[in-house]
Amino acid sequence: MDVSQYLDIFIDETNEHIQALSDNIMALEQEPENKDTINEIFRAAHSLKGMAGTMGFKRMQHLTHDMENVFSEVRNDTVKVDSNLIDILFKCLDAVEGYLETVKATSDEGTEDNAALIKMLNDVLDGNSGGGSSDDSADEAPATAEASEPAAAADDAAGSEDPNGTNHFLALKLDDEGLGKLRSAVEDDGLNLYGMTVHIQKDCLLKAARAFLVFKALEDYGEILIYDPSSQDIEDEKFDLGFSVIFASESEDTEAIKASVMAVSEIEKVDLLAVTVEQYEKAAEAEEAAPAPAAEAAEPEVSAAPAPATAAAPAPAAESASTPAAKKAANKPVTTRTVRVDLEKLDALMNQVSELIIAKNSLVSISSSSENTSGGLDTQSWQSQIEYLERITTNLHESVMKVRMVPIESTVNKFPRMIRDLSRKLGKPMNLVMTGEETELDRTVVDQLGDPLQHLLRNSADHGIESPEERRAAGKPEEGTIFLNAFQEGNNVIIQVGDDGGGINTEKVKAKAIERGMVTPEEAENLSQKEIIDFLFMPSFSMAKTITDISGRGVGLDVVKSNIEALGGNVEVKSTLGQGSTFTVRLPLTLAIIQALMVEIRDEKYAIALGSIQIIEDISIEDIKYVEAKEVVHLRGSVIPIIRLDQLLDFEPLDNEPSNLTVVVVKKGDLQAGLVVDNLIGQQEIVIKSLGKVIDNNKLISGATILGDGEVAMILDVNALM
Description:
The chain is of the alpha+beta class. The chain is built from 26 helices and 22 strands. The strands form five sheets. A six-stranded mixed beta sheet has the order 14-18-19-17-16-15. It has a five-stranded mixed beta sheet with strand order 6-8-9-11-10, covered by helices on one side. It has a five-stranded mixed beta sheet with strand order 20-12-13-22-21. β8 and β9 form a beta hairpin. The radius of gyration is 31 Å and the shape is globular.
């Protein structure tokens, strides 16, 4: 039976069962005798086992079957719940999640048997509580290493195509265009060619950000010519834990190049060798000339037969072993783009669609009547139906928006487990308190919210919460508190992430900024607390004394800020030394349809999101003053900087400047600015259309919209303007 058609459902339901298991195991740790929780865990494990078996994922089925056996014994009171068992169960859950990620990527569960975990579970059933597993696995490790050495050697000999393998760049197959780039760099520019494979740590949160920093480091030495995978795939994080490049450089100091890449945090290893154009030309020629014999020639090396007499025998086995790999390569990644919708919302949507059909029929009827009568169109009836249609489309829009909205619960539910693990790893007792998980956001926003929030929480755990000794000395309870609050405020959702830790020491931040040459000591004296804290969001700025694998060192907050601003939001920080810090993330409810103010600059139309606008003022040119050579205006007790959009967008200056300016005052967090426009058109409901990569380098434009007359208007990004 072909079960591939059920893969999307399997992925969705497995995600739910994994989350349910995680929540219930957390609860079980607090209440080991709670029978209801134990029964819930047993049912979820049983469901996972059945689903994996139905889909033919035998390894996943085996692991969940053994988990179910343990839960059965816990339910029968023959196995007692302790912290060691909880740790084993969480490791099993991580393994199940690993299977699921492999299924998403390849439609197959992979080849990982998780034998060590299964042994731990069996040890628990045998009464060993998993305690002996470390020694056993330690004993097994050398054997495993020995077994893997011939395979690794064979991979190197055959030119392994594993993107995470050692010196993967040597196995790259270049087309004529790629070879042309290499020849040009060597023959025309006289540069040296280097191949590099970069391996990222397994627990890295923001792989694309690390890759970007690697590219930036390499660009100091030369130009990157070849990316594998493509630069777009790397930017979209469509790679595992390794990527390769070929770059050209004048430098011959490979150690310096390697050191600059290794300086990027969360980089596990770097393979770097000088390469030649001839290497890749020969590989291309060999592949074109005789791909089949080349494959056959590689087989004896891979099989590594112990005796000449049996050399031919492994060939069929090797051939059959490659079949699943070929099958896996052919499978496409599975992406689930589903939203679960309340039936009431669908009923409301259906009712509005039926009203839309009635309105359409009424308009058709009026149009037909006007054609059959000499009196022409009944203007009053027509206008009435247009108003009715406008009312229906507005309601329809609201209903569709409600269908797209999902609670942020799906994103934040994984955080209690993460904080529990960090608490044990860092040796700091801490507790996560979450409120407002039911707050709803557009699905597109929720999908991209997980990583920034995860980083902020890890940052609070690592840098915010003090050690138990420091907390006792400060008169605080030993257990630190991290909080995540979400609530709706107008057309925005506010998410606050904070802690009751030591807060941000602005004097140390200031000293670090002076040390790095970002400000002079004289300038630093006049900085406000907010301006000092803003240094933390600068690229590569770090206060960490030692590099850890838990929170961002010099790139984290910068990436968080850019990710949130890409969603049309912003991040603010408030901190009190000795009492803690709070990061406030402000996000729009939806990225699809917004209310906007349409403005005109010369003869072009632009849209400004209404949620960003505070007030519109008509200002005399004489009221504009200068502060540090920049135009400002004094309004209601506030000094507001003036931004002339015509200059920013490279319009030709007017021959005669008007005596009065129309200024749209916008706000981003605590910041305000006055945008000078030529004319105001009015408020409109606009549909946001992405510009894709067309003008991706222009941060002032966040998208475009199509107006009623078919004209295209650009949407200004207020966050980028300020």
